[in-house]
């Protein structure tokens, strides 16, 4: 089991901002997963990988693939109080789900 | 309501690694919070701040303060599969809890 969190590289997020947005997406997708997936992922050490996407369009395409595969997923938009314009899409989390299923969506992306 | 996640600056974590460890701490502390704190935090947009700590000792001191204040909190150790030695303390999350209570523990730290 794993969760992949995809973060945009094209909007100039600072390190702390990025980490907060990754955490936001992670929790949101986790809460949309079923109890078995949650339990299995946690008992296996809640494996997470953080990956790069280059644009909003890429994030939406990946979210659509996750939806078609029936995987828990969540897109996060920033409230825009600080670094970004309100509503800016920042991150997408896919899973927790079996690794091979997550990889069908995010397997071609680079590690952040 | 907010959650503060404190990350060490002295162990050379890359950006993606840091974000994953922040997410790990965030979820772990969230799950140790009560249902009212969870609900209030989420309905308020799950505010998160990511802050800096300079050493393992500082992380443990902050965790001890959070414990004394009765705040939900979680320390994360890395499994050590990649960049870090196994068991390295990486992050601490405090909250979700009322902002003023979180600030009694982490209010003096710098934003990451």
Automatic annotation (TrEMBL), chains A, B:
Enzyme class of the recorded protein, top EC level: hydrolase
Coiled coil stretches, renumbered: none
Keyword annotations of the record: Hydrolase
Record Pfam families: PTH2
The reaction(s) this protein catalyses: an N-acyl-L-alpha-aminoacyl-tRNA + H2O = an N-acyl-L-amino acid + a tRNA + H(+)
InterPro entries: Pep_tRNA_hydro_II_dom_sf (IPR023476), PTH2 (IPR002833)
EC number(s) given by UniProt: 3.1.1.29
GO molecular function ontology, one term from the record: peptidyl-tRNA hydrolase activity
PANTHER family: PEPTIDYL-TRNA HYDROLASE 2, PEPTIDYL-TRNA HYDROLASE 2, MITOCHONDRIAL
Biological role stated in the UniProt entry: The natural substrate for this enzyme may be peptidyl-tRNAs which drop off the ribosome during protein synthesis.
Family designation: Belongs to the PTH2 family.
Name assigned to this protein: Peptidyl-tRNA hydrolase
């Amino acid at each position: 089991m794993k969760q992949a969190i995809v973060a945009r590289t094209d909007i100039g997020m600072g390190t702390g901002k990025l980490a907060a947005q990754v955490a936001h997406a992670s929790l949101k997708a986790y809460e949309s997963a079923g109890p078995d997936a949650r339990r299995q992922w946690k008992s296996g050490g809640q494996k997470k990988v953080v990956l790069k996407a280059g644009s909003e369009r890429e994030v939406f395409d990946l979210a659509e693939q996750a939806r078609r595969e029936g995987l828990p997923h969540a897109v996060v938009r920033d409230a825009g109080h600080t670094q970004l314009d309100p509503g800016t899409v920042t991150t997408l989390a896919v899973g927790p789900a079996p690794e091979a299923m997550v990889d069908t969506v995010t397997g071609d992306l680079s590690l952040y």
